[in-house]
Specification:
This protein is an alpha/beta fold. It folds into two domains: about 5-210 and about 330-350, TIM Barrel (Alpha-Beta Barrel), CATH 3.20.20.70; about 220-320, no CATH class. The chain has 16 helices and eleven strands. The chain has helices at about 10-15, 30-40, 50-65, 80-90, 105-110, 125-135, 155-165, 180-190, 200, 210-215, 240-245, 250-265, 265-270, 275-285, 290-310, 335-350, and strands at about 20, 45, 70-75, 95-100, 115-120, 140, 145-150, 170-175, 195, 225, 235-240. The strands form two sheets. It has an eight-stranded parallel beta sheet with strand order 1-9-8-6-5-4-3-2. A three-stranded antiparallel beta sheet has the order 7-11-10, with no helix packed on it. Strand 10 (about 225) and strand 11 (about 235-240) form a beta hairpin. The longest helix is centred in the C-terminal third of the chain and has 19 residues, at about 335-350. The radius of gyration is 20 Å and the shape is globular.
């Protein structure tokens, strides 16, 4: 491997290559995580969409499929987060990643038990805060990324965060990465590696149904949108009919359309109107959402699961990075990693003025 690709991230994670597979809800399960880690990258189990017992089973299955290191992604605000942290310690999981930065007491607990902490952030000020709390690495996602994302592109956000971190911990760049040239560009900015979600979702090792993968592959680079009409937070998703309908609704029509959609999708969610009302009332208080956003937010996780796991494309929620528009194949996770590293080495040789492999 080219010396430039041996970064501090490898020493932290224990992986062979500076590539991380993100903890995508409903997608990053044992098969994909193990395949990624076996390929030399670093797989992360998405536990935020799992029950505690499902996480126990997922860790056991992943260990049965690989002896390579892997991590677990968690929600810092989960009711049972402390039980999950104890599980990570008991199972000797080396890295805990977080979609939202954990408070210092959780970080201290993990450090006391030898677990490294890698939160995801989307703004410079977030980097400043988590560095004060003493994290071990920072995953920074630019606006090109899928799911909940910010508005600043990776090319601007990444150097800002690298400057804040100032070499104290590895920085992992996410949002818009899919090949070896992107890896080299991230290293040039000062990152220690890249993280990818959509590229790993679109592999043969991903459990996402084939008809859903085909929908992703058929999406052009202009076929995604960042909208708050899904659950009240900026969310990059494929521009499906449902998303077009909700994003284009006026204040007057947004709530009736959300109610109609909730009625249509009760076969997926199983939620009663009373359950949706109670959950929505609490969310409205906490997050200052409109009633249309409240109704959609209460249904979004189940609709996403129905789409990504069950292949119900009419459910219409397909989180994705903008990079979906430049991906046109379904290789194995091993092929993805091998291709990226090979292209990164060729790119580094070209920049150095050397013949490939010399």
């Amino acid at each position: 491997m080219h010396p430039a690709l041996h970064t501090p991230l490898l020493d932290l994670l224990g992986s062979r290559y500076p590539i991380v597979q993100t903890g995508m809800g409903w997608v990053a399960g044992p098969k994909l995580v193990a395949a990624t880690s076996n390929a030399g990258a670093f797989g992360i189990i998405a536990s935020a969409t799992m029950t505690y017992d499902e996480l126990v089973a997922a860790i056991a299955e992943t260990k049965s499929r690989t002896t390579a290191p892997f991590g677990v992604n968690l929600r810092a605000d989960a009711d049972d987060v402390k039980d999950r942290l104890k599980l990570l310690v008991a199972e000797e999981i080396g890295v805990a990643s977080f979609a939202q930065a954990p408070k210092k007491d959780l970080i201290d607990y993990l450090h006391d038990h030898g677990v490294k902490v890698m939160p995801s952030i989307g703004a410079k000020r977030h980097a400043e805060k988590v560095m004060e709390w003493g994290v071990d690495a920072v995953l920074v996602q630019g606006g090109e990324g899928g799911g909940h994302t910010g508005s600043v592109p990776t090319s601007l956000l990444l150097p800002e965060v690298v400057d804040v971190v100032a070499g104290r911990v590895p920085v992992v760049a996410a949002g818009g990465y899919f090949d070896g040239r992107g890896l080299v560009s991230a290293l040039a900015y000062g990152a220690s590696g890249i993280a990818m979600g959509t590229r790993f979702l679109l592999t043969s090792d991903s459990a996402v149904p084939m008809e859903v993968k085909k929908a992703y592959l058929g999406t052009p680079v202009t076929g995604t949108i960042v909208t708050t009409r899904i659950d009240g937070a900026p969310h990059r998703v494929i521009l499906t009919d449902l998303v077009k309908q909700m994003d284009g609704a006026s204040p007057l029509t947004a709530t009736p359309k959300a109610v109609l959609n909730a009625s249509r999708f009760r076969k997926y969610t199983g939620l009663s109107w009373l359950q949706m009302l109670r959950e929505g009332r609490d969310m409205r208080k906490r997050m200052d959402l409109s009633w249309a956003e409240v109704i959609m937010a209460g249904n979004t996780p189940i609709l996403t699961k129905a789409t990504l796991c069950d292949g119900e494309l009419d459910a219409g929620i397909l989180p994705t990075g903008q990079v979906v528009g430049v991906i046109d194949d379904l290789p194995s996770a091993d092929d993805v990693v091998t291709r990226i590293i090979a292209e990164a080495e060729r790119t580094l040789d070209r920049l150095a003025g050397r013949a490939p492999g010399s």
